[in-house]
């Protein structure tokens, strides 16, 4: 186990009867809010009214940035910064999922800087001060509600890049499982895939002595395997929504990879796909992950993948290689049964772009993807082809 | 899953090469430190020199409160408060395990109040302001390094009572697994028992829909089951010390019982034993837990205990009652093989005090212990007798 620091101090306010605390929490930090949200679903399902009602009740002024898109774009951050600066806001309230919160993080980090926000994505060490952010989460997926990460897309440069800064960590997150009842099936499923991917990116490593963290990861994966299918049938199942929502937070907030040094593999590969073709992130991850594991499967890694199969999918096979193969198959089938389109072709990726995307994936990772198994351009290309 | 708030913002600085950050962390909060420690083992194993060296390096003044005993006593808090006030300290650095940190928490909470510290234990809502505390942990057991709880003994009144206040939560905790290399076998084992007990107190509940939390608990218990026996044979095994140490923090910091409403059962029963006879807390917990589970085992609870047996001890039995019985047996044997004296008689408890202690245990819990199964005085007496 490597040395590490764990310091994630977002206050989580979880449950169905908590929103009346919103004004009180905001007032600890500010009194004029930039309210960020997406395409307007929160107006249909009543969440917008709930929140603006609370703000009005507590006499908190707000201005709005709406229309933040999936795979949020740097253009929206430019627009948000303009509104925030013109109105001298002192707090950002992000109401939505990963896209809205990630975009809010960029506005937060760029607010006090005199540079284009894309420069902040490229070099987040510029951030020395940030606007405080609070979150009302409406979809369980990215874990952004309790982590310092943000992923932003630049369609002009065809780049989808992440940045991190402890200064943009949300100060609080309200997590009401009922607010996820109306998430469409496709995005519920993609969220489950995203959560599982974060967990597996943290989990797959070679002999780092982090047994405790890996046992937690296995428990988190089992939670997704139990409740994912339930949500498909019964999207208003509170227990299922609550378990998936709480699991999503812990998949990526630093606990599961505390003491580990493995870099992520599947996310860098997926980011190219959605930067080029704007596909749903979780779907891309689910398509790639089983193919990535197959590509990694060798004598050195078969025990790790075999244990994954036994501990997560209850595979009984004692032979590591056979167990590993069965586990990968079960993972594929799990995603397929959830209704994920399990090939790149089905989600509109064009075959003649695979090589270019593979080369860019490793270029953005600094020449190679150093994860569970080091991947070069050719490896990524093979994984894309196997996923096509 | 019930509504809850999770807000545990202790900064964890974990590993073997982190202590050079100590001065920097302290200076965020103060410049004159009350250094609290126990019976002097930190002088033998070099930890005292490490720490005072860091304080001197960074020009931080300190005064000392030494000799804090296991099952720390309110008298030591009185002494510490006198030293702290006379020297106008602005920070408390607790170097030790649960006893030292818990005592430091009482000094912290009582510092600004004009009442005897026992009054603070009896009513911690009095605390409105507290001295900040930092921790250098030297034993993995109580989880006090990242929680708001403290347990204090009053030998005059024969009471061992806990209090909680978010204001006494440590602001940072340095956790170096090597600092636990010299913990004697008896206390290493008692620590593992304590960690497992916290986890099981959180775990055993009826149908609360907290599957995710319970899966994490099972992973934490498996970590103890894997590394407890390794530490017995090889106390300087870094991986084992690190896993146990990190697990100890998460057994009780609020994650495993987030969304749960079950009260603890075994701790209130054990607190009477160590208030009367000053026995080792973890040992008392290990003796009582299997007998408590046997006492709870009925038609309503056999599935929960059966799942525990299957998921934690890999019991293959499909019948719940049989599985539950086998799981309880395996838990008993696990403690016994670790070298825990598995009867109250062996640790010096007197049989003729059982009834009095049982009555007081429920009295301190408000007339009954409302946990996995509600326990009245007669229940506690039966569990004590079965443990004798």
TrEMBL record, chains A, B:
Listed InterPro entries: ADH_Fe/GldA, ADH_Fe_C, ADH_Fe_CS, BDH-like
Keywords: Oxidoreductase
Span of domain Alcohol dehydrogenase iron-type/glycerol dehydrogenase GldA: 10-177
Name of the protein in its database record: Alcohol dehydrogenase YqhD (Iron-dependent ADH family)
Superkingdom of origin organism: Bacteria
Domain Fe-containing alcohol dehydrogenase-like C-terminal positions: 188-387
Pfam families in the record: ADH_Fe_C, Fe-ADH
Transmembrane residue ranges: none
